[in-house]
Amino acid sequence: MNEKLSFENTEIAFRHSTNADLNRAYWLFKVINVNFLVKIGPPITNFAMNIGLPIKGIIKATIFKHFCGGETIEECSKTTANLAAGGVGTILDYSVEGEDSEQVFDSTRDEIIRTILTAAKSKSIPLTVFKVTGVARFALLEKLDAGLKLSVDEQLEWQTAQDRVLAICEMAHSEGVPVMIDAEESWIQKTIDHLALNMMRFFNKETNIVYNTYQLYRHDKLASLIADHAVAETEGFILGAKIVRGAYMEKERKRAEEKGYPSPIQPNKEATDRDYNDAIIYCADNVNNIAFVAGTHNEESCRLLADLLNEKKIEHKNPHVYFSQLLGMSDNLSFNLANANYNVAKYVPYGPVKAVLPYLFRRAQENTAIAGQMSRELSLISKERKRRAAKV
Q: SS3 of 381, please?
């Protein structure tokens, strides 16, 4: 068992943080802990940005600085170096959302390719990522998922979208840089799954390049993982799997209720936790031909995987196994795992402040929705501040 692995060691968890960083994080999480402020913050901020009030600087110096690497790849280099000093890798995540034009889709494809080329030159960036809705229109994916017939123009649009995904995965393959395809809403996910599996057929013959994402808060996703692994074994390629709990629960339940179909979401948190941990166990059991990233802020799941690797005598640095957390959260997991020599990488979102606001607001709202997460972050930060004060 993993006797020496402790997620309570705040000296290791916050070694990369200056006193100013810790103080900013302390007050930021204090504010996020107040649900009322998190609810009224987004509309007020959007309104202020839209009428040109000079609040960009305030946002950039506070919530943006904590959860994002910068506005450009170049601006992320300081964060990447800071994480690397603690043994933690960076996943550059271009987090511009809600755009819907062919021109923007092309420029997003080009930006994702830039993240791959940057990663190819840096051992500190072991993985890359993109969303299919960054390079394809949501409504088009929705139509495909529903099995509706596409017009001639839409068929051409879909071919162009697939070509963008192919270009990204081809570059990842030629540079030897793994790329993860993020999960999205259930009513476009079938199309994304199909696309991801096809990319694996092309590029995962010899090594793990393309990963699909499995959201285990869906009750059907453990079965999907096992079925996809069977396909990979039969057809002779490595399955790339990012295992997460999920990010669209409220939206999923609301849509299912409005449209009168059964919710795809698990009945309770216990069912999600059980399927998540079962997925981790399944991947570890099949580590030779499943390359997986355990994306989680859950201490029990992290400890389970760390213990599994030890029990199965799987090298901590096995390239088929990564732990992953978001920048600005759960440093006690990321840095203590890295200190114990496990593969760990943080998602480092970046992009223009205004374009990344939806991501930032979602982070804040998700954090208040996670029972105990904020008080946990605050207690760890407080513990480290006291430890440092006692040394002075």
A: helix
Structure tokens at 272: 């999600």
pLDDT tens column, 38-86: 565 566 666 666 766 666 778 888 888 888 999 999 999 999 999 999 9
Structure tokens at 13: 């968890």
How far from chain centre, in Å, is Cα 75?
20
Phi, psi (deg, nearest 5) at residue 151: -70, 170
Which residue in the block uniquely carries the two structure tokens 């504010």? Answer: 31
Burial of 181 (0-12, 13-18, 19+ CB in 10 A): buried
Do residues 281 and 308 lie in contact, with contact meaning Cβ atoms separated by under 8 Å?
A: yes
CA 390 to chain centre: 36
β-bridge pairing 344-350 and 321-326: parallel
Chain centre distance of CA 101? 24
pTM of the predicted model over 0.90: yes
Q: Rounded CA gap, 125 and 138, in Å?
A: 29
Cα–Cα nearest to 111, from 164, 157, 159: 164
Q: Which amino acid is at 216?
A: L
Look at residue 1 and tell me whether its pLDDT is greater than 50: no
